[in-house]
């Protein structure tokens, strides 16, 4: 017992555990920076509709004048443009909603809720270690049954807390994979969005081309 309590400086946890905590602290800072960047791009779709409304406004202007120019190519352009802009606005809103809920929020929750909660458990465990060492030194100074019981109780409390923290840190080591999966999901949503927009543009272009082609043919006498 003397070797345990006579050290000049003690460490609450083994070096491997302390290194894992340091890595998580760095991950937390990186995550917070990522969240700030994502918030600028995604925004809460339930609170900010400016971008969608801007796109829809242009589409509504096109729709407004579709019956102004008869059945010519300009009408086809206006109709096709209105359709494309409407579809793009809806799909863009849906994409942001999916990314906000399934990418930004999970990452943000880890940084703002999960990590701080875990660190509170770690600090509690550090205090239990201090209490255990204090009780152990008391036993060393004057070995009584009461002090031994107090030390054993403090040691059991610390061991229980430490094992819980150790299991938690093992789980949080997987946070990198979690964040990577979230970013991968965002890329997939953007890819599907751009693919859908490209398909709508191709439809519109094809409709305009057919209209121009039909007007270019000489009318039969």
Automatic annotation (TrEMBL):
Cellular-component GO terms for this entry: cytoplasm
Keyword Coiled coil: yes
SUPFAM superfamilies: BAR/IMD domain-like (SSF103657)
This protein's name: BAR domain-containing protein
Keyword Coiled coil: yes
Gene3D superfamilies, A to Z: Arfaptin homology (AH) domain/BAR domain
Pfam families for this protein: BAR (PF03114)
Species assigned in the record: Panagrolaimus davidi
Keyword annotations of the record: Coiled coil
Stretches assigned to coiled coil: 125-161
Domain BAR positions: 5-209
């Amino acid at each position: 017992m003397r070797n345990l309590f006579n050290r000049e400086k003690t460490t609450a946890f083994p070096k491997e555990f302390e290194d894992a905590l340091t890595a998580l602290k760095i991950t937390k800072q990186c995550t917070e920076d990522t969240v700030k960047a994502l918030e600028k791009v995604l925004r809460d779709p339930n609170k900010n509709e400016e971008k969608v409304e801007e796109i829809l406004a242009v589409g509504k202007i096109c729709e407004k004048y579709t019956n102004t120019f008869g059945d010519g190519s300009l009408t086809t352009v206006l109709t096709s443009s209105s359709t494309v802009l409407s579809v793009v606005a809806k799909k863009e809103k849906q994409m942001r909603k999916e990314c906000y809920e399934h990418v930004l929020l999970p990452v943000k929750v880890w940084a703002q809720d999960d990590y701080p909660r875990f660190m509170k458990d770690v600090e509690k465990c550090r205090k239990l270690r201090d209490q255990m060492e204090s009780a152990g030194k008391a036993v060393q100074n004057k070995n009584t049954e009461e002090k031994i019981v107090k030390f054993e109780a403090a040691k059991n409390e610390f061991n229980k807390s430490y094992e819980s923290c150790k299991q938690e840190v093992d789980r949080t080591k997987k946070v990198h994979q979690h964040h990577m999966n979230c970013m991968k999901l965002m890329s997939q949503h953007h890819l599907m969005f751009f693919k859908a927009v490209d398909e709508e543009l191709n439809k519109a272009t094809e409709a305009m081309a057919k209209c121009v082609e039909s007007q270019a043919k000489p009318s039969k006498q």
